[in-house]
Amino acid sequence: MNRINRMLLSVRYYFAYLQQENKIGYNPAAGISLKGSIRTVPHDLLEKQELEALYESYTVKDDRSQRNKVILSLLVYQGLTSQELHQLKAEHTRLKEGKVYVPANEHTNSRLKLEAFQIMELYEYIHVTRSKILVNRIAERSGRKPKLMKAAEQTSQLFISMDGCENIKNSLYHLNQALRRLNPKYKNAVQLRKSVITEWLKEKDLRTVQYMAGHKYVSSTERYQTSNLEDLKEALNKHHPLT
Questions:
Q1: How far apart are CA 187 and CA 236, in angstroms?
Q2: Counting Cβ atoms within 10 Å, is residue 126 exposed (0-12), middle (13-18) or buried (19+)?
Q3: What CATH number labels 48-232?
Q4: For residues 199 and 211, is the Cβ–Cβ distance under 8 A?
Q5: Domain ranges across the chain
Q6: CA-CA distance, 40 to 121, in Å (whole number)?
Q7: How far apart are CA 91 and CA 55, in angstroms?
Q8: Can you tell me the distance from the alpha carbon of 53 to that of 150, in angstroms, rounded to the nearest whole number?
Q9: Which pLDDT tens digit goes with each residue over 173-205?
Q10: Which residues contact 90 (CB under 8 A, 6 or more apart)?
Q11: Distance (Å, rounded) from C-alpha 168 to C-alpha 154?
Q12: What is the C-alpha separation between 169 and 158, in angstroms, rounded?
């Protein structure tokens, strides 16, 4: 938006110069500026079958890929954000209730949700794979890794980096690379979340999806309604100053 307003400013200056030179009688660009926020239209979405195919096609062959499979399931079936994945702690899983607690942040509300088939997957990860990752990290730290780990903080995280990092940014990067090989249409976790929310709205009511997505405002959920996308595209084409 700032870029567009700078372009409009240049146009106003040009017409002001022409007006000063008495070449035009008035400045047609005077007072014109872009205000408010631009509503973007969700695009390049994956359909439900493609989302499920990503999950099913991702192969587990070691501790790293088993952890990533659990991460992927939360992306595909709960529509979590990268920030939420990093903030999840082991204590947030409530397997006996078949739920996982997703803490609120500045952009989302908290919510509880977990597909039934994920319970055993999470149980195995927490009690077997995650425990092995923790043991190996403590026993095999090399000189290039931090001498002191933030033990209390890192060992409480649900998803732990295998190389000593304090976050799972690199883990998500490598997962993204693997998913792009499985489906060239795949871009990133943001695209997955948008796709998941759009698919939810095809089957569930608006308020239910707002809760599932953790949106603070229902307007955030409405923009994913497929019935509104064409109207929004038409409005953007009609009113955007550079179209």
A1: 24
A2: middle
A3: 1.10.443.10
A4: no
A5: 2-37, 48-232
A6: 36
A7: 25
A8: 37
A9: 999 999 999 999 999 999 999 999 999 999 999
A10: 126, 130, 156, 157, 158
A11: 11
A12: 14
Helices (H), 116-225: 118-124, 130-139, 151-154, 169-182, 189-203, 206-213, 218-222
Q: What is the pLDDT of residue 105?
A: 78
Token readout for 231 is 């109207």
Tally of helices (H runs) and strands (E runs) in the chain: 12, 3
Q: Which residues touch 119 (CB under 8 Å, ≥6 apart)? A: 95, 98
How far is the C-alpha of 161 from the C-alpha of 67, rounded, in Å?
A: 10
The residue among 147 and 118 whose pLDDT is bigger is 118
Strand order from edge to edge, sheet including 99-102: 93-94, 99-102, 111-112
Q: How far apart are CA 37 and CA 51, in angstroms?
A: 30
